[in-house]
Amino acid sequence: MPKILLVEDNEDNRDMLSRRLVRKGYEVVMAVDGEQGVAMAQTERPDLILMDMSLPAMDGWAATRMLRGIPETQRVPVIALTAHAMSGDREKAMAAGCDDYDTKPVELPRLLEKIEALLRRRQGEAAAGA
Amino acid sequence: MTTIRQRLQLSLLSIVALFAVNLVVYFYGNKLRGDAIEYHRRAQSRQISIAGIQQDVGDLKKQVDLLSSGTVTTQGAARAEDIAQFRGRVEDVARQTEALRALSVGEARAQVAAFQREFDALSRSWVRFYENLGTDEAAAISAALEAEPLVEKVLRDLPRMQADERRRAQLADARFREVHRATNRLTITLFLLSTLLAAAVGFLLSRHLSQGIGLLEDGANRIGSGDFQERIPVTSRDELGRLAGSFNGMTENLLAARGRLEAVHRQLAERHAELERQDEALREANARLVASERSALAATQAKSEFLAKMSHELRTPLNAIIGYSEILQEEAEDAGQDAFVPDLQKIRAAGKHLLGLINDILDLSKIEAGKMEVYLETVEIAPTIREVAATIQPLVEKNHNTLVVNVADDVGTMVTDLTKVRQGLFNLLSNAAKFTERGTLTLDVSREAGAAGGWVVFAVSDTGIGMSPEQMAKLFQEFSQVDASTTRKYGGTGLGLVITRRFCQMLGGDVNVRSEAGKGSTFTMRLPAVGIDPKAAAQPGAAPENGAGRNGAEPGDAGSRVLVVDDDPAVHDLLRRFLGKEGFRVEGALNGEEGLRRARETRPDVVVLDVMMPRMDGWATLSALKCDPDICDIPVIMLTMVDDRNLGFALGASEYLTKPVERDKLVDVLARYRADPGDCRILVVEDDAPTRSLMRRLLEKEGWQVAEAENGRLGLECLDSVRPNLVLLDIMMPEVDGFEFVAEVRRRPEWRSLPIVVVTAKDLTDEDRLRLNGHVTRILQKGGYSGDALLGEVRDLVADCVRCSRPVAAVASAATAPTEGGTRAEDTARRG
């Protein structure tokens, strides 16, 4: 069962997305801000991280950059979630080290596709690495 | 008394008369003296004559006596010759007597005449005696006896006559003296009199003149000092009196003139006061205008911020509503409770509709606040259309419609804002799908020839309800869906078409509609194949492409173009000569209106603007330039006699130079604005060494010169030596941070217009942005950019900045919200 770390400050969003992901068969752990997200990424060792970009304490951009600097989390796929879709958000997310991005409110099927794709790629990499 | 002239004439005449009298006296006295002398002389001559006669008579008597006593006895008769001699002597005396008589006048002449008669008788007696002597003794004796008493008388008379003459001579002498004395006295008296008269006349006249002139002088002085009530007393009717009279007349005239002048002055003063009041009123009105403009700007800003914030606040709960309704729907389906599903679907649909409304309103408010940005990129048209068609498919199928897509084979690519084109197409297609049931929607995409790459035409046709001409007329107005009932029936905000039209216009195209009620509608979006970014200073046909290999070099560029706006053609010639040699092309406009028109037509690299011009002055021209979004980014250099830098910079001038034109300074300043990207220096101020060297590598690859500074302080220090065309600035740095750097740079007039691009990892707060607002050209979030993206941004900025060194104030408003405004393709796709 793939483990997903959901970093999201809004309780409703956190609750909705986690419930829907759980129902789709994922194990979900949650963090409420960037700092906690980075910490949990190291302790929980998730297979994938869903990262909201506008977070208190440390925002998603900074958290992602930090994750990329930590060996344990360097290769964990990160999908950026932004509240308002801006031109360049995708580029920004990629530049910060995210692997993909999506906009809120999430369109669950689309997000699931992205999650599946990244997880498959990671498994492939892991297999290749092994 | 009469006039001074007459008085002078009279005085002169009297002096001349006195002088004449003096002369007469002199000559008359002379004559009297001459007469007296002559009289005296004659008296003396007569005395001498009488003495001579007396002598002769005595001699004759002696001879006779001698003869008479001797002859009686002894002597014979007298010889004839002795008688003749005697006769001769007697006649001689008679002649002398005659001469004496001729000399005498008056009483003396009578005396002489008497003497003549006596002597005549005597001489006859004597001659008879002599003749008878010797011959006739008796006769002789009787003659002698006869002669005796005569001789006695004659000899008595002669001394008497002599004494008389002596007396006369003395008389004449006395008369001479008397006349001499009298004339002398008279002459002296007259001389004294003349002198006295002259002195008196001179004294009186000078006293009169000096008194009169003194009065005139006093009066003139008093009048001269402004006392026009003063009158000079008229004491006489002479020239001075007349002069005083004229002077008084002149004073009257002056008084009257001064009265008129004072009246005019009062009128002028009132007019001046009136003008000042008007001026004051104008100033106040101006201040109010400025204040209201400021508050309007602030209000717009506040409104946009409020809307942005509100839309976020609205979206968060809305997202929860939509999300939970989806979850409930899924759970209801899983639990087999299908009865709930339609209601949950309605909740979700309503939430989506509301979200669409909020997004539309946000879009519209951004457009109206001028904050909607255009991102031009090269778009493959056919795949984009395929994607749009796929996304819209569910909506098309909802009303049992069919979508037919016809894309021409040669459609290729276009340079445009993909998001806006996509949103426009979604809007048109979803409209068509909403208003059509069991019909066909057709999307035709084709190219149309034209200037600068021609046009791309997107036509969306449907077989739906169509519209009447009246309905079409209101179609593109905000919140005016065909009617309120339509909203209820078909949903939608009525804003989609408005937004679509505004987007098309921003891209240089438009959207229009053909329709007939009951027969369906065709909406046609017509966009330039090479889109125009209204904010960028791109030349027509040189729209930026985001591909690599474009470094801003303009092929065949014949030098930077300078538009000189000055009413003095000599300035045009001068600048043409100065700048022609430096490789600038100088164009001229002789007044503000022409300058504006030419700026719009030719888009020069820089405008050189005078202030003092007829009709539309430089300030008005500057304001107009900066208010026109098409040309507000052209830097304006003020070149004027008027030294009002603050006003110039406040109105958006990039530089301020004063006339007379200094060639070197002008060339130096213009060099900063010339289009010469080949020689572009970029200063990277960044404390993180890896980032710095990464930037250097990226920028140098583009052929730009790069200078590095580790912090703000070092950056400021090397500013003068590097003279960068652009600064890439980090915010969080030791010693002098980015904020201080910007503030310091903007404090220095020579760097006032230096473009600064902030590249920062710091998540800038509103306060931070406010500090930077208006001072930096662009803010880029460092973390959010890949190398390519950052480079792309920087490249565009460098090209823009170098080409025309965007004036900071003009770009600031366009660049304040780089993290807002953008693509919402997916959202739009689902919009109701």
Task: Describe the structure in your own words.
Helices cover 49% and strands 18% of the residues of chain A. By secondary structure, chain A is an alpha/beta fold. Chain B has 4 domains: 4-212, f41 fragment of flagellin, N-terminal domain (Up-down Bundle), CATH 1.20.1330; 377-531, 2-Layer Sandwich (Heat Shock Protein 90); 561-670, Response regulator (Rossmann fold); 677-815, Rossmann fold (3-Layer(aba) Sandwich). Chain B has 23 helices and 17 strands. In chain B, helix 3 (106-132) packs antiparallel against helix 4 and helix 4 (137-224) runs parallel beside helix 5.
Largest contact between chains = A-B, 32 and 40 residues
Helix-strand string of chain A: EHEHEHEHEH
Helical amount of chain B: 55-70%
End-to-end Cα distance of chain A, whole Å, is 20 Å
In the residues of chain A, how many domains can be counted? 1
User: Would you tell me which CATH topology of the largest domain in chain B applies?
Assistant: f41 fragment of flagellin, N-terminal domain
- Secondary structure class of chain A reads alpha/beta
Q: What low-confidence regions of chain B span 5 or more consecutive residues with pLDDT below 50? A: 536-558, 804-832
CATH fold topology of chain A: Rossmann fold
Low-confidence stretches of chain A: none
Q: How many individual domains of chain B? A: 4
Across the major sheet of chain A, the strand order is 2-1-3-4-5
Strand and helix layout:
The complex is a heterodimer of chains A (130) and B (832).
Chain A: E1 3-7, H1 11-23, E2 27-31, H2 34-44, E3 48-52, H3 60-69, E4 78-82, H4 89-96, E5 100-103, H5 108-129
Parallel strand pairs in A: 1-2, 1-3, 3-4, 4-5
Helix pairs in contact in A: 2-3
Chain B: H1 4-70, H2 80-103, H3 106-132, H4 137-224, H5 239-335, H6 341-368, E1 377-380, H7 381-398, E2 402-407, E3 413-416, H8 418-434, E4 440-448, E5 455-461, H9 469-473, H10 484-490, H11 496-506, E6 510-516, E7 520-528, E8 561-565, H12 569-580, E9 585-589, H13 592-602, E10 606-609, H14 618-627, E11 636-640, H15 645-650, E12 655-658, H16 663-671, E13 681-685, H17 689-701, E14 705-709, H18 712-722, E15 726-729, H19 738-747, E16 756-760, H20 766-772, E17 778-781, H21 787-804, H22 808-815, H23 825-829
